[in-house]
């Protein structure tokens, strides 16, 4: 017959909130209550603001891709600088490669944005998918943008392409606000003089 002595063992424990442990981004929803897409400098307004934890320089996306970046906040509302704004500059890349460029908008077609500053050796094809590059503290890596619809072959130094957006920017409803938990730490580090 086996005799087992039962002892009470007390172990100090630490409770870890695993939903935030090593989590880089938080996501919350908001509703677009105003949307401009036919001007050179377009903005959108959402129904959340400072009281809901919304701040400037936070990414805004939906299930189809990027929408823009929050540029102004009041207590209950926030304004988004749309990707359809001539001042908009977003780091983007060719999907499945490490070739990056700068996404901007020429102010013409609300379904098409431009990707420029791509290295000359980058293999570009009509239909290639463009996504966020993850080289900033605003957008996570790999958020969809659109597909290449036209390649400017006349000026290989510029290497600019047109990108047809996955989003219909004239028909937007609910969006996700994407906050980077590490943004302040990264910005502080990068601002330090060597």
Task: Give the SSE layout.
Elements: E1 25-35, E2 41-46, E3 59-62, E4 65-73, E5 78-85, E6 90-94, E7 100-104, E8 112-116, E9 129-132, E10 144-151, E11 161-165, E12 174-180, H1 183-191
Write a brief structural summary.
The protein is mainly beta and 194 residues long. 5% of the residues lie in helices and 40% in strands.
Q: Which features characterize this protein?
A:
mainly beta; Thrombin, subunit H; globular; 6-stranded antiparallel beta barrel; 194 residues
Walkthrough of the structure:
With 194 residues, this protein is mainly beta. The protein has two domains: 25-86 and 170-181, Thrombin, subunit H; 90-165, Rod shape-determining protein MreC, domain 2 (Thrombin, subunit H). It is 5% helix and 40% strand. The protein contains one helix and twelve strands; from the N terminus they run ββββββββββββα. It has one helix at 183-191; strands at residues 25-35, 41-46, 59-62, 65-73, 78-85, 90-94, 100-104, 112-116, 129-132, 144-151, 161-165, 174-180. The strands form two sheets. It has a six-stranded antiparallel β-barrel with strand order 1-2-5-4-3-12. The longest helix is centred in the last third of the chain and has 9 residues, at 183-191. The chain is globular and about 50 Å long. The model has no long low-confidence stretch (mean pLDDT 86).
């Amino acid at each position: 017959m086996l005799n087992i002595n039962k002892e009470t063992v007390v172990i100090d424990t630490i409770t870890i909130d695993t939903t935030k442990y090593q989590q880089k981004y938080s996501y919350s929803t908001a509703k677009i209550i105003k949307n401009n897409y036919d001007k050179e400098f377009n903005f959108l307004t959402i129904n959340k603001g400072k009281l809901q934890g919304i701040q400037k320089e936070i990414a805004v996306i939906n299930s189809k891709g990027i929408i823009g970046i929050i540029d102004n906040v009041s207590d209950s509302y926030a304004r988004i600088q749309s990707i359809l704004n001539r001042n908009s500059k977003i780091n983007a890349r060719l999907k499945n490669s490490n070739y990056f460029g700068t996404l901007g908008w020429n102010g013409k077609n609300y379904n098409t944005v431009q990707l420029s500053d791509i290295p000359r050796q980058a293999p570009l094809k009509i239909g290639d998918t463009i996504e966020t590059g993850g080289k900033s503290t605003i957008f996570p890596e790999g958020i969809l943008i659109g597909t290449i619809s036209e390649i400017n072959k006349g000026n290989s130094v510029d290497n600019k392409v047109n990108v047809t957006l996955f989003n219909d920017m004239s028909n937007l409803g609910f969006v996700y606000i994407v906050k980077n938990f590490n943004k302040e730490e990264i910005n502080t580090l990068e601002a330090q003089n060597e």
